[in-house]
Amino acid sequence: MSHSPKPGPTPTPVGDILGRSVPRLEAREKVTGRAVYTDDMTLPGMLYGALLGSPHPHARILSYDTSRARAIPGVKAVLTAEDLPNHRVGSVLKDQPLLARGKVLHEGEPVAAVAAVDLQTARRALQAIDIRYEVLPAVFDPEEALRPGAPVLHEQRDTYLDFQAVSPERANHPNAASHIRLIEGEPDRVWERCDVIVEDVYETPAQQHIYLEPCSTLASVDRDSGKVTLYTSTQSVFRVQAITAEALGIPMSRVRVIAPRVGGGFGGKTEMTNQPITAALARAAGAPVKMTLSRTDDMRMMKSRHACRIHMRTGATRDGRILARRVRIVYDTGAYADDGPYVAGVGAYFARGPYRIPHVDIECWAVYTNRLRAAAFRGFGNPQIHFASETQVDLLAEKLGLDPIDLRLRNALETGERWLGGAPVESGTLQACLEKAREASDWVRRRSQQRASSPGKRRGIGVAAVGHVSGLLGSSATVRLNEDGTVTVNTGAVDIGQGSDTALAQCAAAALGLSLEQINYSGPDTDVSPYDWCTGGTRTTFTVGRVITQACEQIKQQLFEHASEMLSRPVQQLELRPGGIVGVQGEPGASVPFGAISARALYFKGGPLIASSRYLFPPTPIDTRQTSAQGLASMGNGFFVFAAQVAEVEVDELTGKVELLEAWSVHDVGRTINRAAAEGQIQGGFVQGLGFALTEELLWHEGHLLNPSMSSYKVPGAPDVPVGIHPLLLEHPSGEGPFGAKGVAEVSLVGVAPAICNAIRHATGATVTRIPATGERVLRALLAREGTGAKE
């Protein structure tokens, strides 16, 4: 009985590889369920790890008794801080132990770890550990934490290794992880020149990342060399390598990190402590250990977005020129600094918004509290400040009798102007984004028809202008020509579900005139991959794509040098042809395939064709001639990108429930690499922003997390998300990205909350100053508008 061969994948046409909706490289394995994630993996003799969290938000550890746990059959290792090197870790401040040392600083903080033959035994052992605590006074509000007499969380704060610019003001506050002050113009003298002033306090919540795959690590230790190998769900194999080596006091050369498929991260898997803890368990047990957190443990022990309180005052002249802004921003960084000081830096840097406001006074804090540590999360401090800023711009438009888009257009930064701090705006496309948003959303008609759609329900439409950055820190890549003329691309970048592997392979294919099937894209492994800092900061396509195309350009030059001799033509007359061919311009019959050139190089002359490239986005120093700066010496965040987001909502005036009806998200992507991936990023970012705006919030009572589960933490579901979220791509190639591409991942979330809340005010006249805009909060805003209740 014969079988017809299964059809192979349809070759991707060359020549038009950029801008097409190319299927992802891993699509088939994911949709068939064959994709391997960390928790799918097993090793011979593997044990299971589990963590014990603190029951108190702030308490001194008086004693441990692990004897009962160690005596349980099947338990192979029990660790507390006393069993680990006394090394603190952290991306900015070295302030966090792997397991709580001396005292605990938030409920759920890991205090002990166990490895056992199965998960049930490990969890039973956790219950058998006896830890005695002395409960200490706690502080849960960051502004209260800055007041005299507040409980001090880090008594040794001034002794921590600190990678940020230190300001005298911050050192005077032991609960401050950072303090920044930026002043431009004469903000104290200009308010009398403002014809309209708006002022309020805005609050944004701690949002949980809710990646589909909880944190998971599988660690093994080579018995002979002691080398630790980690398979882990991470956004950076190199950051895991560094933090594991640092925490355990071993050389980085003795730590290997491999990333299998990763089920999301959004900033929550950038620098974690679960990996070195798992490695420590494997070393103690003498066997491989896998630790996959439950959803509840993940939410109690890992990270969140920074909750934030923003005091903002903005003034404008009657002709619609925004003249002055004063801002005080307080980020709740939780028990440990993590990325908090950098998040505060971004918040301060974007507090002026994407506008030319000549007089500003910005003060920003990242403050320790006895809550879960906060860290990187899509947008990195910018969604919080944009919520306040874009709400106030709308209020100014209302008071001035101007259309909200028109007011933004009058003040939008343009190419050649300077951002707060003096950095040049190299591609100022905000006006183009706003004009496209107005056209696509039929803004004028919808805005003029504020209407009751049915009894007790009203519709409104709102807008937000967005400025963000693309690119950050360092990347490298290696490109090698294989014997058959195909190409292997190797980077350390981790695809966390956004499709970067495919987009980066497209960059290589486009640079060399190949089809996607001729590109072998190699996954991240610290033993063999070139360095990449992290998948985050809207940087992967921009930064890694840049080094890949640079390496491909070197390969092209090597190809041309060989082909010049093989074809007896000068290099200047050669050209790349589709499919892996070097030809002579104007001579269709004169050509040589990549494979022949590779064979010549490998066996006759010169050696293998291989090239590497590296890049570090240069930090931009604060121009002290323009800006008085304390606590922030430079910004290394990258190339400015712009967007405009419009939302139409319906508000139930009886219940306060808000429903998103339709949305338009316009982004200047520079050059589209993979259209479907870019559009998917925009739609996904908008939905994540929808949760930030309307439903998502970590809730605590006396420091105890009340909703650490998917059933009690309200992520938008399919019924909450309209079909009509329209991603609109503008292409203004510019900057250092591959083929002029710019990033889109984070910026797609940044303006969603203010666009929705501005739509709520258009529908009802009520101003929401605290999100998520739950039914209760919207009703309070409605009552405040009518003067019958207090605004929250």
TrEMBL record:
Superkingdom field = Bacteria
Query: Which Gene3D superfamilies does this chain map to?
Result: Aldehyde oxidase/xanthine dehydrogenase, a/b hammerhead (3.90.1170.50), Aldehyde oxidase/xanthine dehydrogenase, molybdopterin binding domain (3.30.365.10)
The cross-references to InterPro entries, in alphabetical order and at most eight, read: Ald_Oxase/Xan_DH_a/b, Ald_Oxase/Xan_DH_a/b_sf, Ald_Oxase/xanthine_DH-like, AldOxase/xan_DH_MoCoBD1, AldOxase/xan_DH_MoCoBD2, AldOxase/xan_DH_Mopterin-bd_sf
Q: Where is the signal peptide?
A: none
Occurrences of domain Aldehyde oxidase/xanthine dehydrogenase a/b hammerhead (ranges): 32-137
State the protein's name.
Xanthine dehydrogenase family protein molybdopterin-binding subunit
Originating species = Archangium minus
